[in-house]
Amino acid sequence: MDFRTEVDHHSFGVRATALIIRDSHIFLSKHEDGYHTIGGAIEVGEASSQAVLREMQEEVGITGEIVDLAFVVENQFTVNGGNFHNIEFHYLIKPFEELPTEMVEGEKSYPCEWLPLNKLDDFEIKPAFLKKALKNWNGQLRHVINKDGED
Question: Is the peptide bond before 127 cis (omega within 30 degrees of 0)?
C-alpha cells in the first residue's frame, strides 16, 4: 500500500524520484504528456530513500546508490475540481548498471532518453520545476514550494 490518501476532495501523496544525471544530461522517460523522472509513490512504512531505489528497480530494472537528496518539493494544485497536495523527494542517483532504453510501468512501457540540461526549456518536463531548478542548482539541498503549477 502506498502513501496516498483522500479526505474531503483533497488528495495527498508522497513520492520519491531519481535524478540520474551524466555528462550534462538527465535520464527521463517519455510519456504522452511529456518527460517524467523515474520514481513513484512511497509505500506506507518505507523511507523515501528506500522508495527511490525500489522504484528504479521496478521501472527500469537497475540498481544504484544515492549520491544526495537534491530537492524536497511541495506541490499544491487543482485538477478537474480535485485538490492535490504532493510531497516529493528528488534524489541524485548513481546507477550501477547500463540504463535501459525503456521504462515499464504496469502494463505500459515508455521510451527513455537523455535530455541535455541546457535545453530543458525545449521539452515538457514533469515535474516542471526541474527546468529552472537544475540550471541554478549548486549541489545543495533545496526546498521548493509550488502552488497551482507555479515554479
Answer: yes
